[in-house]
């Protein structure tokens, strides 16, 4: 028998690897929960550049979050960590932007010579695009949108003002040079594209008037150049008849085609003015009326696939030229099908494709914001998808007013759109709600630039 004063102790047990992992996860999670709100609050409150300690703490905490994510055993644990991670990333970048953006904007507004460096403003606008999707409050998004609009307007206006003299000088060259000014026409087209973007971000009547004056100068120079070329071409085709024309062909064979090509280029520049707008509220009303007409139709109702019919009705309500959407109709109500609409948009002078950068998410997101901003001001856009599968329908919808939204399906921002596809009768949802993930690669965006029956606002 053991002595009475002898005691026994249980052998020490080593926690299992799973228990150790769980304990490490819980310790890190506790530390993150304790530190993250304080650091985010400090970075949000300070716009000066001396919060070095807080920034270093945020960077260290990001590393801890990454370790904790690796220890997590399912998505339930990982998702809150990813949210914390995004908050810290947003706060770090927002802190730097908040320290720079107001000063840059103020410097542009105080400038009297218009010679500020636009590159710093563009760089800040890109930084804003990078973090916009990480913002978690409406106040944050509104502040970012305000900075972004100001920076993009001032950067665009400065760049336009710097390039304008060169483009005007080229367009105002003599009409009988052998090489012509086709490069100038391309430069003018590129500059008009920048002008359209700057218009979207103009926030005052004074700013809009400034941009409109640049546009007017380019258009007038292009029209004058075109008229001079028309006179040159006309004189070369007259006076001496076909025999004289044939005798002179050797010396003019390379010159005349250059002039004709240039005329087309200049006409394209002039056509940039065709981008039309309607009153913004009219867009929403036309969408509502178009959808109501689809639902009221006993052949269509609330479920039948009628994206082409709904799009036709909305565009008709807006006063767009929809004659070709119906006269060769092979679909319901004599309206051409969505695939046929896709082909018609590409061939029609009334519609201009707006090409988005599908290979760069940041560029894509900013371009979507630009399109949405135009739509909110009354521009008419459609999204069109061609279905390559025989006897299968494509898809089409009119964009509507709202705020561009993040889409998990598309992996980036998407604009707001109406939809009257199968089982779809809504006026304003994310485009990806009706255009699935598989449709992103084949979807194109077109802006209406044709005649409007109703009063238009340029």
- Determine Rg (CA atoms, Å): 30 Å
The CATH topology annotation of the domain at 280-448 reads as Cathepsin B, Chain A
Q: Provide the low-confidence segments as ranges.
A: 174-181, 239-256
The DSSP helix count reads: 14
- Mean pLDDT comes to 81
Q: Would you list the SSEs in sequence order as H and E?
A: HHHHHHHHHHHHHEHEEEEEEE
The CATH architecture of the domain at 280-448 comes to: Alpha-Beta Complex
The largest β sheet comes out as: 4 strands, antiparallel
The strand count comes to: 8
Can you list the strand order of the major beta sheet?
A: 1-8-2-3
Question: In the CATH hierarchy, what is the class of the domain at 280-448?
Answer: Alpha Beta
How would you portray this structure in words?
By secondary structure, the chain is of the alpha+beta class. Among the domains are: 151-274, no CATH class; 280-448, Cathepsin B, Chain A, CATH 3.90.70. It is built from 14 helices and eight strands. It has helices at residues 17-45, 52-71, 75-110, 118-132, 138-171, 182-201, 205-236, 241-252, 255-270, 280-296, 307-318, 324-327, 338-347, 361-376; strands at 351-354, 381-385, 395-398, 405-407, 412-414, 416-419, 426-430, 443-448. Strands 1-8-2-3 form a four-stranded antiparallel β-sheet, covered by helices on one side. Strands 4-5 form a two-stranded antiparallel sheet. A two-stranded antiparallel sheet has the order 6-7. A hairpin with a 6-residue loop joins strand 6 and strand 7 (426-430). Helix 3 (75-110) packs across helix 5 and helix 4 (118-132) runs antiparallel to helix 5. The chain is flat and about 105 Å long. The termini are far apart. Mean pLDDT is 81; it is low at 174-181 and 239-256.
């Amino acid at each position: 028998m053991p002595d009475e004063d002898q005691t026994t102790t249980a052998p020490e047990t080593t926690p299992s690897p799973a228990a150790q992992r769980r304990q490490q996860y819980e310790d890190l999670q506790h530390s993150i929960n304790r530190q993250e709100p304080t650091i985010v609050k400090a970075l949000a409150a300070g716009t000066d550049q001396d919060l070095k300690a807080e920034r270093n703490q945020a960077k260290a905490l990001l590393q801890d979050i990454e370790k904790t994510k690796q220890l997590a055993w399912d998505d339930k644990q990982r998702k809150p960590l990813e949210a914390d991670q995004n908050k810290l990333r947003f706060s770090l970048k927002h802190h730097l932007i908040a320290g720079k953006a107001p000063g840059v904007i103020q410097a542009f507004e105080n400038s009297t010579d218009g010679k500020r460096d636009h590159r710093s403003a563009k760089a800040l606008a890109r930084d804003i695009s990078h973090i916009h999707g990480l913002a978690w409050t409406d106040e944050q998004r509104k502040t970012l949108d305000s900075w972004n609009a100001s920076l993009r307007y001032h950067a665009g206006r400065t760049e336009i003002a710097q390039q304008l003299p060169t483009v005007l000088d080229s367009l105002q060259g003599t009409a009988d040079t052998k090489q012509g000014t086709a490069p100038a026409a391309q430069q003018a087209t590129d500059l008009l594209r920048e002008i359209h973007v700057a218009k979207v971000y103009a926030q005052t009547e004074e700013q809009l008037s400034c941009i409109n004056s640049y546009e007017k100068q380019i258009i007038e120079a292009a029209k004058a150049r075109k008229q001079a070329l028309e006179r040159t071409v006309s004189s070369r085709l007259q006076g001496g008849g076909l025999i004289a024309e044939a005798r002179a062909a050797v010396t003019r064979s390379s010159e005349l085609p250059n002039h004709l090509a240039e005329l087309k280029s200049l006409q394209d520049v002039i056509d940039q003015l065709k981008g039309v707008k309607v009153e913004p509220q009219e867009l929403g009303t036309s969408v509502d009326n178009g959808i109501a007409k689809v639902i009221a139709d006993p052949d269509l109702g609330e479920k039948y696939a009628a994206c082409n019919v709904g799009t036709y009705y909305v565009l008709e309500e807006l006063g767009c030229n929809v004659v070709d959407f119906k006269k060769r109709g092979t679909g319901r109500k004599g309206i051409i099908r969505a695939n046929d609409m896709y082909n018609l948009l590409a061939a029609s002078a009334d519609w201009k494709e707006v090409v988005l950068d599908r290979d760069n998410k940041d560029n894509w997101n900013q371009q979507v914001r630009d399109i949405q901003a135009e739509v909110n001001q009354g521009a008419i856009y459609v999204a069109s998808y061609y279905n390559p599968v025989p006897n299968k329908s494509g898809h089409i919808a009119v964009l509507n007013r709202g705020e561009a939204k993040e889409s998990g399906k598309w992996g980036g921002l998407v604009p707001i759109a109406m939809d009257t596809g199968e089982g779809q009768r809504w006026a304003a949802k994310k485009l990806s709600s009706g255009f699935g993930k598989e449709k992103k690669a084949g979807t194109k965006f077109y802006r209406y630039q044709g005649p409007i029956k109703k009063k238009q606002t340029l």
